[in-house]
Protein: MFS transporter
Organism: Mesosutterella faecium
Amino acid sequence: MNKADFKLNGTPTRALTAATLGFFFGAMAISLFGPTARALSTSMGLSPMQVGLLVAAPSLTGSLFRIPFGASVDVNGGCRSFNVLMAASVIGLVGLSVLFSTRFPDRMDGLYGLVLLLGCLAGCGIATFSVGVSQVSYWFRKKDQGFALGVFGGLGTASAGVLALGLPVLLAAFGFVWAYYILTGIMIAGALIYFFLSCNAPYFQLRDAGFSEKESRSRAAGLGQELFPAGNIRDSLRISAGIPQTWLLVGTYFTTFGGFIALTAWFPTYWQQAQGLAPIHAGVLTMVFSVLAAVMRVPGGLVADRLGGVKVSFGALTAAAAACAAMNLDLGWVGLFAVSVVIAVAFGFNNAAVMKLIPVYVQKSVGGASGWVGGLGAFGGFVFPPLLGQFVAMSPEHGFGWGFLLFTALAVVNMLLNYFGMVRRA
């Protein structure tokens, strides 16, 4: 391209819209197996821990792939990485649809490992989170990042709750196999929407157009870009890993975003088996929890812009610790649902606060920090469900409630570490 012919493609609003829509479709995989766990468990004869591992499978790649792909934004701007992850998710869903159409329900013996593998592949769409966080951070000025990232994370992750209800409805209307084919078609549509709408931040467009590093930074700054990458993927990960607050944010995000993913996948099983509710009823309650936890990132981001991320995080963790402990009380499903709403609000506010704090503490390597925080933090979505299933295996009567004490304990530990690592250090 002739430098004289350069014209910026896109705006911050367009970039935010593309990233949010792309992540909205990619994040649906969080609920890929939760609503169908009971049917798959019956078909394959699974134990409670195997069920927990099954519902968590998409979160394995959805979390760990956030690390390299988040850091890759500092090199390629993000669009290429986002498209690769969406394509992988589509391939996984196509594989599951074909498998279920030929083997479900009576010929599923010995296919547990293959279902896990395809679920992990479908979960790649969840990993678009760290890519989108970095893209949005590079497009927006620091004073507006809390709100922008709240919109991205809040509206994007709402899809997991929508699918928690939508999949049982599809199952009832079209049957098991066609429900997954329809889900595959929706994912393909989402991948195409992002492909045609997305745009990298000004610095990356200028650099790709042939401008020098100095010219790209200077012109991008004139266009409103305030954050710039520090180097290649390795440098981005190394620089961010050398900042202590990165690891404090990882731990905090592990508790609340990992918890959000885990409970979105686990609640359909919880409401059906622990409270005896019907699948669609369980889907409605799970949807409310998941959507609320997601959209609360928007006001959470606004409050974090005004009060600071650290204060919002401490308040949210306190509420989460108390509410998760209350899940052990004999309140009936209505009372426990009310408690789950408090957990959703607390998780959403803390997740927004953590995203606000990334560009505050790791200004020179937002992509790398987003990868570490988004990847290892979201890894909780893979770790927690098998542990929750193990509590149930240990005590079918009390195990469902005991599992929530994991989040209480972790929230308390997070507050202690953050106090000494952020408040006292500051």
About this structure: Residues 9-423 form a domain with the Growth Hormone; Chain: A; fold (CATH 1.20.1250.20).
